[in-house]
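Researcher: Go.
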Amino acid sequence: MTNDLLYELFLALCLMLVIEGVLPFVYPARWRKLVEQLSEIDDAAIRIIGLVSMLAGVAGIYLAR
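Model: Structure:
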């Protein structure tokens, strides 16, 4: 059971890295501009974005199971 869980977590991490790397690989200038824009957003808004992202991920996992 533990090995299966670790294997799935490892696969999820690898998939996240692939997805995160697509935009900077394909559109590096656009990615840089986006990062600059994100640096100007206040902390509260970034926390809300993070919370919504986590809730969407948990909901997706719940629906998939």
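Model: Helices lie at 2-26, 28-39, 43-64.
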